[in-house]
Specification:
heterodimer, A: 505 residues, Ribonucleotide Reductase, subunit A, two-stranded antiparallel ribbon, 21 helices, 4 strands, globular, B: 90 residues, Phenol Hydroxylase P2 Protein, 3-stranded antiparallel beta sheet, 7 strands
C-alpha cells in the first residue's frame, strides 16, 4: 500500500500552516488593549507559539468530520421519531432522567458555547483561539442536538416543555446554572481550567460515559446517539483541557500555585454538580450499568489518579478534598435522591421509592452504607406512602452559598450529622455545605455574596408570590402533571396504557 | 500504583476494526465491554496504528477518522499521520 496516497502535507505541517502566522502584533493599538483579559489573572505567558493542540485538528478537517457526525446523528433522530422509539424504553420512569438532563445539562452546553466564544476572542495566542472557537461551535451543536433529540419525548411526557425558561428560574437548576455563571465570569485562563480541565478532563467521563451507556441499556436510542456524538467532541475537549494546563505550568513557575488553586476550586464545584448525575445513575435508570461508586472508582480514582501522577513533575498535587469526595461517593446519590423525594412537589420531574429488586441492587453495590443508613429510610417512606401519608416537605431548604445545593449533605465520617459551615463577611453570615465550598467562598467572598439563591429570592418576593403554588406557576410548571410522585402521574397512566395495548396485540 | 491509559470507542461497525487493531498492536491491553461502548485499558501506553487498521478494513484509513468513533480517553495524546498514541510519562 506504499504508493496509495500522495499527501500534500503531513498532519504536523497542516496544523502549523492553519494555526500559525495568522495573527500579527498590532501597532495602531497596544496589544494589551486588543487583548485586555489574558493577563489580569496573574498567569505569565512568554511564548504563545509553544501552545500545541495534540489532536492537530485544522478547520477543514473539523468541518468534514463534524458534518459526518451530524448526518449520522440526524438519520438516527429521524428514524427514532418515525418509529415511535419512545415505546422501546425500559420504563417511563427512565424519562425523568432525560427531563433532568434537558433542563439541567443542555442549557449548560449553551452556557459553555457562550464561554468559549468569549475566550476564543480573548487569548493573544492563535493556537488556543482556534481550539476555543472549535469548542464553541461544538458546544452550540451539543445544545441544539440535545434539544432536537429530546423534543420527541416532549410530545408524550411531562416536564420537558420549557427547558431554557426553567433553567433560569427553578431552584435545583440554579446548581448547574451558577456553576457556569461562575466559570464564565472568571478570567479566560480560569474558565479553561474550570470547563476544559476540571469539568471536561477530570469529570465529564462521569457524566457522559456511564450515563449514555445507561441510556443504551434502557433502550433510549435518541439519547445514546446524541450522547456519543457529543462525546466524540469531548475527547478533543479533554485534550484541550490537558494542553492548557501543561501550557500554563510550563510557561512560568509563578503560574503553578494559581493553577493549583483553580484545580482545587473547580474539582470541588464539579463534584457538587455531578451529584445530580450520581442520583440519575443509582436511582433513575430502571436498568443500571454501574453504580456511581463504581464509576467514581474507574473515572476518578483510577483515571484521575494516573493523571495527577503525571502532573506531579510540575509540582501539582491531586485536588484538595479529593479524599472527602471519594468518601462521598458512598453517600451522595442517596442523600440527593432523598432531598428530591422531599421536594418532588416543587420539581419538574417525578421521584419514587425504588422497588425491592432495586433496593437489593443498591444494598449490593453499597455494602458499607446502604443497609445501615439509607435503606431503612426508603422503606419507611414507602410504608408511609402506602398508608396514604406520602411525605412532602413544605419548608424551603437553606442553600449553600456556593454550590446552591440544599444543605442536606452530611459529614462523611458521621452520616447522621449535617455538614454545616459558615463564614462572616462585612457583618453578614454566609452558609456553605462543606469545607470545599467554604474555601471557595472565603477566597472570593465579594463574588459569592452576589449569588442568586432561589430560596432567598422566593422569600424576598421575586419569584411569583408567597405560596409554593405561585412560585411553581412562575416556573411555568403544569401543576399535577410535571411535579409530584411518579405513582399516579399522567406519565405513568399513559405508559401503562401503552403496555396494556402491547399485551393485547 | 497502576498507570493505565485508556481509550473508549463506540461499539459499532466503524469502530470494530479499530478495536481489533488495538488488541493486535497492544497485546497487554484489557478490553472491557459495556452497553454500546468498549473501553480498552493498557498499562503506560497504547497505540492505534494506521497500517493495522487499514489491513483490517481493506481501505485507506485516516487516523483522524478516530474522531468519529471515540467516546473518551485517558493519557497524553501523540497523533501523527501513521499512528495515534496515548501515554503517561513513566
Amino acid at each position: 500500500m506504499a504508493e496509495k496516497r500522495k499527501k500534500k502535507l503531513g498532519i504536523k505541517q497542516r496544523y502549523s500552516m492553519l494555526t500559525r502566522g495568522l495573527s500579527w502584533e498590532t501597532t495602531y493599538q497596544d496589544m494589551d488593549k486588543v487583548f485586555p483579559y489574558d493577563k489580569f489573572e496573574g498567569i505569565h505567558i512568554h511564548d504563545w507559539e509553544a501552545w500545541e493542540d495534540p489532536f492537530r485538528l485544522t478547520m477543514d478537517a473539523y468541518w468534514k468530520f463534524q458534518s459526518e457526525k451530524e448526518k449520522k446523528l440526524y438519520a438516527v433522530i429521524d428514524s427514532f421519531a418515525q418509529n415511535n422509539g419512545h415505546l422501546g424504553i425500559t420504563d417511563a420512569r427512565y424519562v425523568n432522567a432525560i427531563k433532568l438532563f434537558l433542563t439541567g445539562i443542555s442549557p449548560a452546553e449553551y452556557q459553555a458555547a457562550r464561554g468559549f466564544t468569549h475566550v476564543g476572542r480573548q487569548f493573544r495566542g492563535v493556537g488556543p483561539r482556534v481550539a476555543c472557537q472549535m469548542q464553541a461551535i461544538d458546544e452550540l451543536r451539543h445544545a441544539q442536538t440535545q434539544i432536537h433529540s429530546m423534543s420527541h419525548y416532549n410530545k408524550y411526557f411531562d416536564g420537558l416543555h420549557s427547558g431554557p425558561y426553567m433553567h433560569d428560574r427553578v431552584w435545583y437548576l440554579s446548581v448547574p446554572k451558577s456553576f457556569f455563571d461562575d466559570a464564565r465570569t472568571a478570567g479566560p485562563f480560569e474558565f479553561l481550567t474550570s470547563i476544559s480541565f476540571a469539568f471536561e478532563y477530570v469529570l465529564t467521563n462521569l457524566l457522559f460515559v456511564p450515563f449514555m451507556s445507561g441510556a443504551a441499556f434502557n433502550g433510549d436510542m435518541a439519547t445514546v446517539t446524541f450522547g456519543f456524538s457529543a462525546q466524540s467532541d469531548e475527547a478533543r475537549h479533554m485534550t484541550l483541557g490537558l494542553a492548557v494546563i501543561k501550557f500554563m505550568l510550563e510557561q512560568d513557575e509563578r503560574n503553578i500555585p494559581i493553577v493549583q488553586r483553580w484545580m482545587d476550586k473547580w474539582f470541588w464545584r464539579g463534584t457538587r454538580l455531578l451529584t445530580l448525575v450520581a442520583m440519575m445513575m443509582d436511582y433513575m435508570l430502571p436498568k443500571r450499568v454501574m453504580s456511581w461508586r463504581e464509576a467514581w472508582d474507574i473515572y476518578f480514582t483510577e483515571a484521575g489518579g494516573a493523571l495527577f501522577k503525571d502532573l506531579e513533575r510540575y509540582g501539582i498535587r491531586p485536588p484538595k478534598y479529593a479524599d472527602i469526595a471519594t468518601k462521598e461517593a458512598e453517600h451522595l446519590s442517596h442523600q440527593a435522591w432523598h432531598i428530591f423525594y422531599n421536594y418532588t412537589h416543587a420539581a419538574a420531574f417525578h421521584t419514587w421509592v425504588p422497588e425491592k429488586e432495586e433496593l437489593d441492587w443498591l444494598s449490593e453495590k453499597y455494602p458499607n452504607t446502604f443497609d445501615k443508613y439509607y435503606r431503612p429510610r426508603l422503606e419507611y417512606l414507602d410504608k408511609e406512602e402506602k398508608a396514604g401519608r406520602r411525605f412532602y416537605n413544605d419548608t424551603l431548604p437553606m442553600l449553600c452559598q456556593v454550590c446552591q445545593i440544599p444543605m442536606g449533605y452530611t459529614e462523611m465520617d458521621d452520616p447522621t450529622t449535617i455538614s454545616f459551615q459558615s463564614s462572616e463577611y462585612k457583618g453578614d453570615k454566609y452558609h456553605t455545605c462543606s469545607l470545599g465550598c467554604k474555601d471557595i467562598f472565603d477566597y472570593e467572598p465579594e463574588k459569592y455574596v452576589q449569588a442568586w439563591l432561589p430560596v432567598h429570592q422566593i422569600y424576598q418576593g421575586n419569584c411569583g408570590g408567597p405560596e409554593i403554588e405561585d412560585v411553581l406557576k412562575w416556573y411555568n410548571f403544569n401543576l399535577g402533571a410535571d411535579n409530584l410522585d411518579y405513582s399516579g402521574s399522567p406519565d405513568q397512566k399513559l405508559w401503562n396504557e401503552w403496555q396494556a395495548h402491547r399485551k393485547k396485540a | 500504583m497502576s498507570r493505565k491509559v485508556s481509550i473508549t470507542l463506540q461499539n459499532n461497525d466503524d469502530a470494530r476494526p479499530i478495536i481489533e487493531a488495538i488488541e493486535k498492536d497492544n497485546p497487554d491491553s484489557t478490553v472491557n465491554i459495556y452497553p454500546a461502548m468498549v473501553k480498552i485499558d493498557c498499562e503506560g501506553r497504547l497505540i492505534v496504528k494506521q497500517e493495522t487498521v487499514e489491513a483490517l478494513l481493506g481501505r485507506e484509513w485516516d487516523v483522524q477518522e478516530l474522531h468519529l468513533s471515540i467516546v473518551s480517553m485517558a493519557g497524553n495524546v501523540d497523533e501523527e499521520d501513521e499512528y495515534f498514541e496515548l501515554s503517561w510519562n513513566l
